[in-house]
Specification:
alpha/beta, five-stranded parallel β-sheet, elongated, OSK domain-containing protein
């Protein structure tokens, strides 16, 4: 090992480290003396240490210091023991614990089934708002009229005699109806035979008299005015409308007045008529 350009032997190096260690001990002792911890040090300053073979001292040797006395610090407070004569407090719970013995799955499933059956019975007793209880039967003019509560059955270019022939069949095909609306007669006015047309309607009324009016309410839908500007056609339709309104009143049938509703309402027709639009 070179020091200041001079080679030193291993023994001399050990002696130099031994001196440095002694200096460090003196400094540590002085510092611990200021703090009152000098009793914990094994070496006092100025006291010569026993001679040891410096050649046997290793560089990896370490110096260990004894642990500090714990009594120098603050003592933790001890918990005060509970009084022996203190009354005991009993804790109770008025709720039953959730366990498999209390929570009986079988009983709960039976209650659920009873609730489902009761709910189904209540739903069946409530009438359905969307039930189709009305049958609209007539010619092709009403083919676009349809909604959630009405069943529309149309026969294009149907006459009064055609509706008489299919009346019983359509009522049988729709057993849940309680309202029947008939719209027919406009096609018959093309022949210009007003008296013949009246006889056909009288036969239709006789067929309607055979129905149970307590179960089915009957409506007669009056003719719709034409929008093509033909005066003869308008006159025949208006004459039929006036006659039907009087006959229905005398027979106790409900008459639907369409002339005033559709007069000059081209927007409610499909093209030039006579078919009504969805509006």
């Amino acid at each position: 090992m070179a020091e200041g350009g001079r080679q030193t032997s291993p023994c001399e190096s050990c002696r130099m480290y031994q001196q440095e260690i002694s200096l460090l001990r003196d400094k540590i002792y002085a510092l611990e003396t200021e703090r009152g911890l000098n009793d914990t040090l094994p070496v006092e300053p100025g006291k010569k240490t026993e001679k040891t073979d410096t050649c046997n001292l290793k560089l990896n040797d370490t110096i260990t210091f004894p642990k500090l006395n714990r009594q120098l610090g603050a003592r933790p407070k001890q918990r005060q023991h509970a009084r022996k004569n203190a009354p005991e407090i009993k804790l109770t719970n008025r709720f039953s614990p959730l366990s498999e013995n209390v929570y009986n799955k079988q009983k709960m499933s039976e209650k659920n089934k009873e609730h489902e059956v009761k709910t189904k019975m209540e739903r069946n007793t409530v009438p359905s708002v969307k039930a189709r209880d009305t049958l609209l039967l007539g010619d092709g003019a009403i083919s676009n009229i349809n909604n959630e509560i009405m069943t529309t059955v149309t026969y294009p270019s149907a006459t009064v005699s055609d509706i008489i022939d299919v009346l019983n069949k359509e009522i049988t095909n729709n057993p849940g109806i309680n309202k029947l609306v008939l719209h027919v007669g406009a096609v018959d006015t093309r022949n210009g035979e007003s008296e013949v047309l009246k006889e056909k309607f009288n036969k239709l009324f006789e067929r309607l008299d055979c129905l149970d009016k307590d179960a089915i309410q009957i409506f007669i839908s009056g003719p719709i005015p034409n929008i093509d500007g033909r005066i003869n056609k308008f006159s025949r339709l208006f004459q039929l409308n006036t006659w039907l309104s009087k006959v229905c009143k005398s027979r106790g049938l409900t008459f639907i007045e369409n002339f005033n509703l559709f007069w000059k309402r081209d927007d409610l027709f499909k093209g030039n008529g006579p078919h009504l639009s969805r509006g």
